[in-house]
Fold this protein.
Amino acid sequence: MEITDKGKNNKIIGDLKGEGKIRIEGNNNKIVIDGLISNINFKICGNNNIMHIKENVSVFKGLKATITGNESKLEIKKNTTIVKAYILINEDKNKVEIGEDCMFSDNVIILASDSHSIISTDTGKCINAHKNGVTIGNHVWIGMNVLILKDVKIGDNSIVAGGAVVTYKKAEKNIIIAGNPSKKIKKGVTWERKTPTEDEIAQEVQLQGKINKGNIHCFIEERLLNENYLKRLSGWAYLDNLDSAQSEIYIEIKNKKYKKIYKAKMNERPDIANNSNNKKHLNSGFSIIFPGNINKNQIEDINVIIKNTNNIYETKISL
């Protein structure tokens, strides 16, 4: 990491082994990088600003982020992937917050300010200052060539269609936003990373052999409920030393009366293999559609199980 610090009392904390550039012109700024990240170009011009990039954030082509002003903040939460994006935060006390497990396609632009003032001829006052900054929820898919403008709020599990110019300020969950200017075109949806396929309802199975407690790395990205019934789970899971291509993933649901095990569909997750720096974890993604009789309120335990040849491991998860 190439670092240029032209100020006083600035702090750059974290894993700085990746490729990229960081430049600070100002005082009392902080940049925190919780995990290995590459292909970044960060610049701060001002005082008392914060950039915080949390663990397992992946950048494939490039992430350029600039703060010009004072007391502003950029936060990108864990497990988010970015092909290529540019984020500009102007004005004092402004912000861009990006939630967990978001997916940014190519050429996404976020402008948290108009950058130049629009003046009322009646009052002589500026009428286009930012108000709340940009907030993007968890598990949001941003399509190619999207422009996100100041004070936008995008709710959890939502999708922004390619080419949209987003001015939408209602943080509604599970919607599709499209157009210029953008508008809601569909509700009651979510998304997952795998290629579109026709899904099948999982069948209950029996596993033979001893189930061991294992140090399974697991993250549930999507939990879909229909009223009180569990309909769908998706995410990723792997064991450090096991090849996911030779593994199977199951979900076990238990209460005092019964134990049911369902086999999940697996899919490739190059982002997880990249973050773990291990090609064995490429096939660690999974999704599962449950039959319609699993009442969430009757579930006492839910486990992820990984079977690899003759070895079976499990770990407890929560909804």
Observations:
- The two ends are 38 Å apart (CA to CA).
- The chain has one helix and 30 strands.
- The first strand starts at residue 2 and ends at 5.
- The chain has two domains: 2-187, 204-317.
